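Technical annex B. To support the medicinal chemistry partners, we prepared a structural model of the target in complex with iron/sulfur cluster, based solely on the information shown next.
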Amino acid sequence: MDKKLEKLGIYIHIPFCVKKCAYCDFYSICDLSQIDAYVKALIEQIKSYRSERKHYLVETIYIGGGTPSLLSGAQMCEIIRAVYKTFKVSDDAEITMEANPGTLDTEKLAGYHNAGINRLSIGLQSADNAELAMLSRIHTKEDFESSFYLARLEGFENINIDLMYALPGQTRETLFRTIEYVTSLEPEHISFYGLTVEPETPFGQNPELLQKIPDDETQNALYLDAIEKLEHCGFLQYEVSNFAKPGFECKHNLNFWHGKEYLGFGPAAHSIFKGVHFSYAKEFLNFIAFPTDKDTLYQEFEKLDDDALEKQYVMLGFRLKGGIDVKEYNKRFGKDFDEIYFERIKPFLDRNAPEADEPYIIKTKTGYRFSRKGFLLSNELLRKILDDEEE
Ligand code: SF4
């Protein structure tokens, strides 16, 4: 009889973009002539894990970038086939691919669907063409709309749309128009992230744009109002920045937030595999030349001890709307959550916390979770909760 297989998520990085968006610091290159060589190297790297077949069952595959939709349906098919040849893959695996509206057509979408992709994540960011131009996105709202409907026609029944807020010059009106438009299309999932300004990007070095970013108070109000609007439209928040129709939460990301293991392929991809955190260097030419040479490609390599895993579990658990399940924590780490954390959490359970008309942390039937206001301050709260000096 088969030994019980460990569950695993797989991330595959496609590091190509038509052009760099001004705000983006994800690892990608714009030399599209290298795509064929990259796909070949990627497949070689994936296949080098064949000996793990007897140990793992892949539950989710996430193909992100960069712009995965620069690959053809046939290339995507080859990559996914390599995963199936290398690992056992669950019959109902969630297979997500990120797509950029400016790069989709009927033939590609049909190819992706035939390749087994069953969840599409489309990066719209804003439905305001002036905001899209300011972000230097390669598409308009109209390009997005035709991509969305084409995807539906080709059979995609699980679609995420990425949105951003806190954009320079964005107003409550433009944001709400975007949300109204997107919810009217009835996707299954919406991701809603605040713009992060990365100092090394053209965006981060443009004082005129930086000046137009809404201040913290306005950003917080936009976030809270947007959550309410999204929930009102049937998209339930299940994580700080993620909303879904019931039953359409992203399994791949949920596994990550629950501290499950995942294996990443491609330059810049991270993994937490067999208790080790590692990532591949952002070195494209080395990757193509030596896709299976770990000595050349490893950039970081850290063995996660119990303490690190436990802290990561608490940090990621609080990002989820459901929060921390105390029983599950106690069982997993052989510790008593309340004994370690209750004193640190207690001040934030207090309804009279300054400036708060609701507590930052709420006691649930199974443990503790951040309130909406807690989500706004999640980084600060987590620093205080996780810092053992701070008692
Ligand atoms: S398309 Fe996505 S990955 Fe590429 S530059 Fe723009 S934001 Fe970054």
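Notes passed to the chemistry partners:
Residues 17, 20-21, 24, 26, 28, 65-67, 100, 123 surround iron/sulfur cluster (CB under 6 Å).
The mean pLDDT is 94.
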